Give the backbone structure.
Amino acid sequence: MQQLSLLDAIKKEYQEKRAAFIPGDTMKDILLALGALPEDFAKLAQVSNHLADDPTLPFRKSRNGRFCFNFDDGRIERLEFQPFVLSVEEDFIRHDSGKIRHFRGINDDLQLNTVFQAIMRFKAYIIDGVSVAPRARLNQDINKFVCTVFNLRTLTTPRVLGEPALEGVHSDGVDHTMTTFLGSENMTADSAKTFIHDMQETSGIKYHQANKALILGEIQHKTFLDTLLVVDHERKHSLSPVVAQDKAKDSTRDMLIFFTRKPVEDGHVSFKYDSFNPHAEIPLAIDMLAKAG
């Protein structure tokens, strides 16, 4: 299968460079091979129209959901709702660092979309067996990962500037971060650039303050399904703001973000919020692609 060899090439690049960017057209071919139905692509592009107000950021709409990547039984399963928290200790410095945030949950319009399910299969395949620098208080002995998925819309209005990474240079407190572009409206061509930084860079500074010698890569999500993978505990990242082309109108940028990490141990800020119980109200369980051989 041609797509499997392509997946293995992406995985090899990710292992060697600790980051990989996959153009949207390439992602589409891969996702079709991983079970995506052609009619679901257009639906996924519109799913961000149904987001809720973000709990802490006025320029953002959001929903999230937790999934278990169980590599022992080759399954991906929706987990019950839990609050979300990121701390300064995890290289996340913002006004809401350490705050317990309650996001509205993603619904069946996203989790039953076969393109979305294929994206999760894609990520599971790429990260399976990839060793990363271990984060403190993550249980390395369990062959399961928690994948917290965020569906986000960053909004710039005539009064408010939308910043996809208000926190500046940061890490996401996980093992693997993946970002997939769903679309934008009224956004300038140079908006929302992603910069990948060496771990020596100072967390919390703005993207334009970063030491250019410590910038390891610069990419931009422009095309539907453009996807970036980063080994989160070995690379920091930052983003430039969403700037409106027509200043009198709103500008939007829609993304899927996949934060994937090993389960936490006692003493971790998320320990009380790391349940592996399945979601009772809107369950989901799908087969993972067979492990790389």
